[in-house]
Write a structure and sequence with these properties.
The protein is globular and about 50 Å long. It has a 3-stranded antiparallel β-sheet with strand order 3-5-4. The protein folds into 2 domains: about 100 residues, MAGE homology domain, winged helix WH1 motif (Arc Repressor Mutant, subunit A); about 90 residues, Arc Repressor Mutant, subunit A. By secondary structure, it is an alpha+beta fold. It contains 10 helices and 8 strands. Helix 1 packs across helix 3.
């Protein structure tokens, strides 16, 4: 049977509600279930159009109603699951779920990693390299960077390439694009694809904190990296 959602059409009297063809769950719960299901299957971008077609069965709803439900959804994701909604553009037509939980740096806490999940630690290393360079990295240069890391941590280089080129790209941490001939001439490896930060990395990564950690590693203040420091702080001011 259709359920009585807490959503009301613009201009409806208080106490009236919209019928949405689904089981007796609120619009907020249905949206959260849909978003979490999409997130668990693959960390891809989620379209507003797909959400409304699936949850609201294509029903035209007022903007105020939609915004109100999505605000509840955002609060639920944050307070219960530790995630947040991040909109790709100001028009709100595409968004993704990002990790809202700080990593636990406690020596008493131990994690059990699967064979594939331990390669996910590459995210921070690659993000750091891209932030510090403030430019794209060619595929050949990327493998050169990760070759040493694989030797030091006894990781399989073929598995690294799979995780980086497929998994991290699919999950929106990296973008993997073909390059034009002019860029190939700049690359000593003469590779045809380059990596750059994906939308998820741009949202989840605190570039200011990352720069501070790099400074601590080299025993230098973040301001020492003048070009990177200026760019990172400019981006932070725009976001703020």
């Amino acid at each position: 049977m259709p359920f009585r959602s807490e959503m009301k059409e613009d201009g409806e009297e208080e106490g009236q509600s919209v019928n949405i063809e689904n089981t007796g769950k609120s619009a907020t719960v249905l949206c959260v279930q849909y978003l979490m299901s999409k997130h668990m299957k693959g960390k891809n971008l989620i379209k507003k159009e797909d959400l409304t077609k699936t949850v609201f069965k294509g029903r035209v709803i007022g903007k105020n109603n939609y915004d109100r439900v999505m605000e509840d959804v955002s609060n639920t994701l944050k307070n219960i699951f530790g995630f947040s909604l991040s909109y790709i553009k100001d028009d709100g037509k595409q968004f993704m779920i990002v990790n809202n939980i700080e990593p636990i740096n406690d020596p008493e806490v131990h994690y059990s990693f699967s064979e594939s999940s331990k390669y996910r630690t590459l995210i921070e290393l690659i993000t750091c390299a891209l932030v510090m360079l403030q430019s794209e990295i060619s595929e050949g240069q990327m493998w050169n960077i990760l070759e040493r890391y694989s030797n030091e941590h006894n990781l399989d280089m073929n598995m690294i390439k799979k995780v980086v080129r497929i998994d991290l790209v699919k999950d929106q941490y990296l973008q993997y694009k073909a390059t034009d001939d002019s860029n190939i001439m700049l690359d000593p490896e003469k590779t045809t694809h380059w990596f750059s930060l994906g939308p998820r990395a741009l949202v989840e990564c605190n570039q200011i904190m990352l720069l501070k950690r790099v400074g601590e590693l080299y025993n230098m203040p973040p301001e020492s990296f003048k070009r990177v420091y200026a760019v990172v702080h400019k981006k932070h001011q725009v976001i703020s």
